[in-house]
TrEMBL record:
<dbReference type="InterPro" id="IPR003808">
    <property type="entry name" value="Fe-S_metab-assoc_dom"/>
</dbReference>
<protein>
    <submittedName>
        <fullName>Cysteine desulfuration protein SufE</fullName>
    </submittedName>
</protein>
<dbReference type="Pfam" id="PF02657">
    <property type="entry name" value="SufE"/>
</dbReference>
<comment type="similarity">
    <text>Belongs to the SufE family.</text>
</comment>
<feature type="domain" description="Fe-S metabolism associated">
    <location>
        <begin position="12"/>
        <end position="131"/>
    </location>
</feature>
Length: 138
């Protein structure tokens, strides 16, 4: 089974296949289509991620020592970004998620190609996913 770092490296390699940011955005949008969707009952105010311009929800389920996230967003780019984070983090231990450095985001240059509000949203998403993992650390 792959580690968070290995899945992050896989993402970096994928993004290296694209020549420009238009292609990378298209890839992010495609990733959003594969997002494990959050069930409607969890699309609540408390599962909304703070700091995002558009609505983004995240939910975590803890099973057999691993966390699996689901999520959704009204905006296609944001949906792709949460899908990217979930893909790298899913099926990991809460401890590994809390310790994750998200280096792959810097390596693909994502934060440099987001508007300030989306960049804040990205920080909010990472923070929320780590909080959800922490809640399951007991």
């Amino acid at each position: 089974m792959m580690t968070i770092e290995e899945r992050g490296n896989e993402v970096v390699e994928e993004f290296e296949l694209f020549d420009d940011w238009m292609e990378k955005y298209e890839h992010i949008i495609e990733l959003g289509k594969d997002l494990p969707l959050i069930e409607e009952q969890y699309k609540t105010e408390e599962n909304l991620i703070k700091g995002c311009q558009s609505k983004v929800w995240a939910w975590a389920e803890y099973q057999d020592g691993k966390i699996n996230f689901t999520g959704d967003s009204e905006a296609i780019i944001t949906k792709g970004i949460i899908a990217l984070l979930i893909r790298v983090l899913n099926n990991s231990s809460p401890q590994d998620i809390v310790k994750a450095d998200f280096e792959f985001i810097h390596q693909i240059g994502l934060q440099d190609h987001l508007s300030p509000t989306r960049a804040n949203g990205l920080v909010g998403m990472i923070k929320r996913l780590k909080e959800l993992a922490l809640q399951n650390c007991e």
